[in-house]
Automatic annotation (TrEMBL):
Recorded superkingdom: Bacteria
PROSITE patterns cross-referenced by the UniProt entry: RADICAL_SAM
Protein name: L-lysine 2,3-aminomutase
Annotated residues for binding of [4Fe-4S] cluster: 128, 132, 135
UniProt modified residues of type N6-(pyridoxal phosphate)lysine: 340
Matching InterPro entries: Aldolase_TIM, EpmB, Lys_aminomutase/Glu_NH3_mut, rSAM, rSAM_sf
One GO molecular-function entry: metal ion binding
Keyword 4Fe-4S found: yes
Domain Radical SAM core positions: 114-337
C-alpha cells in the first residue's frame, strides 16, 4: 500500500496492463446499429428501414477502422456495399439457398470439414470482425459447428489418425476474432501431430482491423514447427491502407506466406480496372492474389451475382493486362468435388471437349 503511494506511476499503469488489446476493443466497439452507420457516413435516412429489416436474420457488423476507409455520403461506395444490409436481401431468388456449398455433409467432427484430400478446414469460431452481406456462411449453423474450448479434441483426434493430412486451415467465421491465447494453444496442439506440415489461416480481420497484427499473433503464427500461410480477404484496392501494409510487412518479415482471396461482387469489384488495381495494390503490400471466387448462391446475396459469362470475360481481360502471378484463379465451389472448380469447367460449351 505504502509503496503504491510512493510510486504513483505504478497505480496508473496497472489498469492499462489489464486492458484488452486495442484490436479487441475495436472489435467490441464495431457498429451494429444501421442508424449509427448511416449517420456516421452522412447517408440518406431513407436507407434505414430496409437496413433494419435485412439486418434481422444477419446482423450488421462493421468496425470503425474499416468504416473510416469508406467515402462519406456515397451509398454506392464499394466498401459500404459489402456491409450495408439492403432490402433486396429479403427477396427469395430461385437457386439461392442456405447451405450452397454443402458444408453440412463434409463435417467429420464438430467444426471439422474434410472435403479436399490432404487438407482439412477447422471452423474455429462463428464470430467475425465484420459481417459481409454476401457471405456463404450467413446461415451456417454455428451453434452446432462451433466447438467449445475442449471440443477441439475430436477434431485433433481425427487429424492425428490420418497421416495423409498435411495441412490444417483455420477458418470460421474468422479465426482471428479469437484471442491469441486460444489460437496459440490450438497451434501448439496441432504442432504435436507429427504429419502436419503446414498451418494456414483464412481471415478477413487483418483487412478490417489491421491492429489485429500484434506481437502475440506473430508469436504463434511465425513459421517454426510449421510453414505458415495467411490468406487475407480483400475485395477492393481501397481496402488496403497504410495500417494493413504495415501489418503485412511485419508478417512477411517473420516469414509468413501472404495470399489473398476475393469474391467477385457486382457493384464492388466487377470492372477489370477494379480487379487490376486490387492485384497491384495487394502485391505492393507483399500479398499475392490466390483465388477470385464466383459467388456462392446463398440466400440473400443474389444481387451480388456476376453471371458466369461476364465473370469469365473479366478474368480473360485481367489475364491480358497483368503478369500471370497477379491473376487470381477464378473458381467456384461445387459440392462433391475434390478441389475448387475453375470457372471454365462449369460452362457447358467448355465441357464438350
Ligand atoms: C476452400 C477449401 C479448402 C482449401 O482449398 P485450397 O484449394 O487448398 O485453397 C479446404 N477445405 C474446404 C472445406 C474448403 O472449402
Ligand atoms: S469475414 Fe468471411 S466468414 Fe465472416 S462474414 Fe465475412 S465472408 Fe463471411
Amino acid at each position: 500500500m505504502n509503496r503504491e503511494i510512493r510510486r504513483p506511476h505504478m497505480i496508473t499503469r496497472t489498469p492499462e496492463v489489464r486492458q484488452a488489446p486495442l484490436w479487441q476493443r475495436q472489435q467490441a466497439a464495431a457498429i451494429t446499429d444501421p442508424a449509427q452507420l448511416i449517420e456516421r457516413l452522412g447517408l440518406d435516412r431513407a436507407l434505414l428501414a430496409a437496413a433494419c429489416r435485412a439486418a434481422e436474420p444477419f446482423r450488421l457488423r462493421v468496425p470503425e477502422p474499416y468504416v473510416s476507409r469508406m467515402r462519406p455520403g456515397d451509398p454506392d461506395d464499394p466498401l459500404l456495399r459489402q456491409v450495408l444490409p439492403l432490402d433486396v436481401e429479403c427477396d427469395d431468388v430461385a437457386g439461392f439457398v442456405d447451405d450452397p456449398v454443402a458444408d453440412g455433409e463434409a463435417m467429420r467432427a464438430p467444426g471439422l470439414l474434410h472435403k479436399y484430400p490432404g487438407r482439412v478446414l477447422l471452423v474455429t469460431t462463428g464470430a467475425c470482425a465484420v459481417h459481409c452481406r454476401y457471405c456463404f456462411r450467413r446461415h451456417f449453423p454455428y451453434a452446432d459447428a462451433n466447438p467449445a474450448r475442449d471440443a477441439w479434441d475430436a477434431a485433433l483426434a481425427y487429424i492425428s489418425e490420418r497421416p495423409d493430412i498435411s495441412e490444417v486451415i483455420l477458418s470460421g467465421g474468422d479465426p482471428l476474432s479469437l484471442s491469441d491465447g486460444r489460437l496459440a494453444a490450438l497451434a501448439g496442439a496441432l504442432g504435436e501431430i507429427p504429419h502436419l506440415k503446414r498451418l494456414r489461416v483464412h481471415s478477413r480481420t487483418p483487412v478490417v482491423l489491421p491492429e489485429r497484427i500484434t506481437d502475440a499473433l506473430l508469436e504463434w503464427l511465425r513459421p517454426g514447427r510449421f510453414e505458415t500461410i495467411l490468406v487475407i480477404h480483400a475485395n477492393h484496392a481501397r481496402e488496403v491502407d497504410d495500417a494493413l501494409r504495415q501489418g503485412m510487412d511485419r508478417l512477411r518479415a517473420a516469414g509468413v506466406t501472404l495470399l489473398n482471396q476475393s469474391v467477385l461482387l457486382r457493384g464492388v469489384n466487377d470492372r477489370v480496372e477494379d480487379l487490376k488495381a486490387l492485384s497491384e495494390t495487394l502485391f505492393q503490400a507483399g500479398v499475392l492474389p490466390y483465388y477470385l471466387h464466383q459467388l456462392d448462391p446463398v440466400r440473400g446475396a443474389a444481387h451480388f451475382l456476376v453471371p458466369d459469362t461476364r465473370a469469365l470475360a473479366l478474368h480473360r481481360q485481367l489475364a491480358a493486362s497483368l503478369p500471370g502471378y497477379l491473376v487470381p484463379r477464378l473458381v467456384r465451389e461445387l459440392p462433391g468435388r475434390e478441389s475448387k472448380t475453375p470457372l471454365t469447367e462449369s460452362i457447358p460449351e467448355c465441357r464438350k471437349t
